[in-house]
């Protein structure tokens, strides 16, 4: 096991990424366990931090850990030793705490246990999936050709053609994301053709692409809705069951929007997020 770790992780320069990944997953699982214990009202478990009545969300600690880990990673000269591993782990732990409250940052409201709070779990799942792909050695499609271009390694038109293919694949990923296909769009960055196939298929109802290109009552919108109900909705229900097993049920009613009728940048709105 030690030999495998040394040859697969350390020797390939992936030690910082490995430490980030492990700390990220562990941090998310630990904070979810903590908030579920608090929600269940377990008496011996420490509750929320509320000095002076102000609820300090764990995203605050996450930002601090990210700052410490990120700055430390910039100043550590050794890219393979223990210091860079510790810095990466701190950054991963902080990232987990921040993304676990991604919905709060997005909505500027404490929607943690509501339906909108699922956005935080989705963000964490996406981060775990992308980091896991990078940890296996996969890189975005065309990464090697771009590196060759930066090193002055282009000598034939074939490489230019491959770069064009990579750009087409990237465009397919962007269109897939606009069509509401998050997982295929992100996976397509690493695995060619997936995003292109997703880009030419119908958009998810309610996605930016559907709002721009599918007028109400159009045949494309009706077809997209039917496909969504037949294929995508059952998959989403299965995903939600897995997420609730790990992160708990998001079943509370959303709180009243304190920013209704005011600009999103109003300081009084920001101050109420805790």
Automatic annotation (TrEMBL):
Residues 251-274 are annotated as: Disordered. The chain crosses the membrane at residues 15-35, 56-76, 82-107, 119-138, 158-178, 185-204. Keywords: Membrane, Transmembrane, Transmembrane helix. This is Integral membrane protein.
């Amino acid at each position: 096991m030690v030999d495998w770790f040394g040859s697969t992780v350390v020797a390939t320069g992936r030690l910082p990424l490995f430490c980030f990944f492990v700390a990220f997953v562990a941090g998310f699982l630990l904070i979810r366990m903590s908030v579920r214990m608090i929600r269940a009202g377990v008496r011996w478990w420490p509750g929320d931090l509320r000095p002076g009545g102000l609820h300090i969300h764990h995203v605050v600690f996450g930002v601090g850990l990210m700052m410490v880990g990120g700055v430390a990673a910039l100043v550590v000269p050794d890219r393979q030793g223990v210091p860079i591993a510790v810095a990466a782990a701190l950054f991963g732990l902080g990232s987990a705490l921040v993304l676990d409250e991604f919905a709060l940052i997005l909505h500027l409201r404490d929607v943690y246990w509501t339906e909108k709070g699922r956005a935080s779990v989705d963000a964490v799942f996406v981060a775990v999936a992308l980091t896991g792909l990078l940890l296996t050695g996969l890189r975005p499609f065309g990464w090697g050709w771009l590196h060759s271009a930066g090193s002055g390694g282009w000598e034939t038109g074939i490489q230019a053609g491959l770069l064009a293919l990579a750009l087409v694949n990237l465009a397919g990923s962007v269109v897939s994301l606009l069509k509401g296909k998050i997982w295929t769009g992100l996976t397509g960055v690493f695995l060619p053709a997936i995003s292109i196939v997703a880009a030419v298929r119908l958009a998810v109802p309610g996605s930016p692409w559907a709002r721009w290109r599918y007028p109400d009552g159009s045949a494309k919108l009706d077809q997209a809705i039917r496909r969504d109900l037949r294929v995508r909705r059952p998959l989403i229900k299965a995903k939600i069951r897995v997420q609730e097993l790990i992160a708990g049920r998001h079943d509370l009613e959303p709180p009243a929007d304190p920013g209704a009728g005011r600009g999103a940048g109003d300081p009084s709105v920001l101050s109420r997020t805790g």
